[in-house]
Amino acid sequence: MTDTWLVVGLGNPGPEYSGNRHNVGQMVLDALASRMGGKFAAHKGARAAVLEGRLWVGGPRAVLAKPLTYMNVSGGPTSSLAKYYGIDPSHVVAVHDELDIPFNTVRLKLGGGEGGHNGLRDISKALGTKDYLRVRVGVGRPPGRMDAADFVLRDFATAEKKELPFLLDEAADAVEMLARDGLAAAQQKFHPAKA
């Protein structure tokens, strides 16, 4: 196995979804791609757009991937790319929207449950393990009685859009720090101390 990282940004394909809360994982990958100075291109062996490079100068090799499938079937492209590049699940990072943490918050974890997130559930099934890293990007809870599925398929509110670039930057920093310093150090930086 290599020490290459596979960073998968979850979302739905197509311009009509690109600004949705559900696509925040792909937005984070766009932020990483612009730092790396590269562009995504279709991968011949997996239904994904990929960018190969280094997360920072002198850093480890990384494959940034945006599945070209719908969110709920993200596992196939993730598993295909992991096999193609010889990447162990411990070096797979799924970047995704998270309803259970407030907007403008980034959390990191290894393994555990999927919290009803069908994209994660499909990745766990395809990889045959839940033991991969997650960068959870908070999108907040739906207002009132709005269905969670409707909420994540809506664009960010106007006030949130002003904060969004900072959130995407913070999540991109979290991906880099995971690869550079490991999960414990990244959690220390991005998780506030319990009072």
Automatic annotation (TrEMBL):
Binding positions (tRNA): 17, 70, 72, 118
EC number(s) given by UniProt: 3.1.1.29
GO biological process, one term: rescue of stalled ribosome
GO cellular component: cytoplasm
Subcellular localization, as worded in the UniProt entry: Cytoplasm
Catalytic activity: an N-acyl-L-alpha-aminoacyl-tRNA + H2O = an N-acyl-L-amino acid + a tRNA + H(+)
Enzyme class: hydrolase
Residue numbers annotated as active site: 22
Gene3D superfamilies: Peptidyl-tRNA hydrolase
Primary subcellular site in the record, as a coarse category: cytoplasm
Site (Stabilizes the basic form of H active site to accept a proton): 97
Function: Hydrolyzes ribosome-free peptidyl-tRNAs (with 1 or more amino acids incorporated), which drop off the ribosome during protein synthesis, or as a result of ribosome stalling.
Oligomeric form and interacting partners: Monomer.
Family statement: Belongs to the PTH family.
Name of the protein in its database record: Peptidyl-tRNA hydrolase
Protein encoded by which gene: pth
